[in-house]
């Protein structure tokens, strides 16, 4: 599959705009995310109906302070709306996806603002500390009722 993507990028004259890494160790993921100006997560319409949860990558992108352009599927659309960290596009609509990416590439202020909002939301609501506080609160409530 990698060779096919590389050939397509080359045929379109875009090969110099991409880095085809293959699999990278998880601990190096933030390095690659932070090398990007915008993170993109296109999903098919049925993705969450088959899997039933949001993609971890969308949280990682926002945690790194990157604006996100992603398909408006359940879970991901909610994350984008709640965080203000990106643009949700119609799933499987390549023109809308491209327009959103181009819009952010042309508007550095929007990229920066969305990146800041997304990171702030993730730190407040989805960091280990915030999750631990929620778990502790549930445990405290449970202990009071017994």
TrEMBL record:
Gene3D superfamilies: Glycogen Phosphorylase B
Boundaries of every Glycosyl transferase family domain copy: 3-120
Classification via Pfam families: Glycos_transf_1
Alphabetized GO MF terms: glycosyltransferase activity
Coiled-coil zones: none
Protein name listed in UniProt: Glycosyl transferase family 1 domain-containing protein
Organism: Methanosarcina mazei
